[in-house]
Write a structure and sequence with these properties.
Structural class: mainly alpha
Largest sheet: 3 strands, mixed
Low-confidence stretches: none
Number of helices: 24
Number of strands: 5
Distance between the termini: 47 Å
Strand order of the largest sheet: 1-2-3
Mean pLDDT: 85
Shape: elongated
Helix content: 55-70%
Order of helices and strands: HHHHHHHHHHHHHHHHHHHHEHEEHHEEH
Amino acid sequence: MHPFAPHRYIRLLRHRVRRRAALRTWVRRSEFAVVLLAVLIGVGVGLAAWGMGAAAHGLQRLLYGFGPETRLSTATFLPDWRLLLVPPLGGLALAGLNRLIRRWRPKSPVDPIEANALHGGRMSLNDAVVVGAQTVLSNGVGASVGLEAGYAQAGGGIASRLGRAFALRRADLRILVGAGTAGAIAAAFDAPLTGAFYAFELVIGTYSIASLFPVIACAVTAVLVARGLSAGTYAVVTSVPSVIDSAAYPLALAVGALCGLCAILLMRGVGLAEALLARLLPSPALRLLLGGLAVGGLAQISPVALSAGHGALHLAFVTEAPAWPVLTLLLVKALAAILSIGSGFRGGLFFASLLIGALGGKLFAGVMALLAPPGPDALLMAVVGMSAFGAAVIGAPLAMTFLALETTGSLAVTGLVLAAVAVSGLLVRRLFGYSFATWRFHLRGEAIRSAHDVGWVNDLTVGRMMRRDPRRVPAETSLANFRRLFPLGAAAQVVAVDEAGRYAGLVSVPEAHAAAPEGGLGPLLRHRGTVLLPAMNARDAIAAFEAAEADALAVVEPASRQVLGLLTETHLLRRYGEEVEKRRREESGLSGAG
């Protein structure tokens, strides 16, 4: 070897490190670079959507024995033994998979909404693998769940991993996670606008110019990749009347109101089924077995109970049916979805909610035809019901409105749908307060109402803001000695401690100098029972200051009550205000890449 070869290697290594650092710096500072990353993510998400969809559909064909052009929810000649055998055995297989996963990754996966709300967009690709495997298996064995959860997890995971590789800022990483989710939903429904506004409303939590370009770039790219691969995703195609009578608007508002109320029942039904089954059957395997048997039994009535139901949704838009059969299909699908998710199958309610809403719209049209023939256009009411029920469950009214637009291509219908989703969304917001995703967080004990970034509040703790060297004095010190130790202007507040060094109260220096000179500090000790803990976040600390009506509070160790520091209300409010302003600027696109 040449004697100078190691030096050349070191110089080459340093050169590569400098190039990588320069690339990271350019990506962090360039809005155009973030858009390029979003395009790369769109390619990955399109491939993931194709792979997961093909895997689930292939598993269905293998287990149920139908042809490649058939959809499980419309397969009418399935043997009864398959319907009663495949879902429960699939539930047991999922239970076994879950046990293996818990040994590998005991922590629950963090989904895109939770990641953006609490963790600044930090997600794991391993979680995407876990959720993807669970949703593909659940959907593949016929459980009444969709693949959207797996798609969104994959999109968010790919985006987060790529963004962290380039050390993106917190705000840019959150936008990129939203872009990945937009690509996932766009590829799933062949609807880029739907995917984009799903991301704005649910994953990013706001709309800004800074987030527009990456989100649109990823959504369009993912759709193009999925189309190029003939992914066979959930594209919904229908036609509606080109002219909408004004008399349809009151009917659409009524459909929206009914969809909102029924969506609340559906979401509460999932929570009730989950709690009841957990109480009756402590074993997760037995719950999945029972859930599979229930879905198989409902499939004896109609195959609409099986899988996500996009084949059934297509039939709902192209066929006519009387009111009573439609009601039967609606109840079968709703019960199958409740029991599938309540028993532990992994997946989403996105597509099931679209099918239930479309059937509800057709049912409304059928009932109106009986009461006042000929009644409204059934297909039009199906589109309205689909969007209104989806908006109520998913919590994304504009995304559902754009889904109607991309489904029908009619601006007239879009206006009608917008009125209905506004009513359904308002009812759910006022009477229930959650979408399905945030309702699941609520059941787990997480205080997340949206994807708005609240993780920074938890990071802004009392322990980070407190002054660690407060002036201290023994509680038994005489007032005269206290005045000599702390003349006016030396300090505003002094922490008093007992003989064991534990917190005893706060002494105001001005009050001590204004008091009578005789006696000790006992009568001057304030806020003896009100303290702050180092793990408290800024909002909890603000509430403590308001309750105590204090200007400063001591920070103590919870178990020993040893004094750790002192925090003033003025400093707390200033730091909190600075962070709020920083997040506001990030959300409005005034800072970040660029």
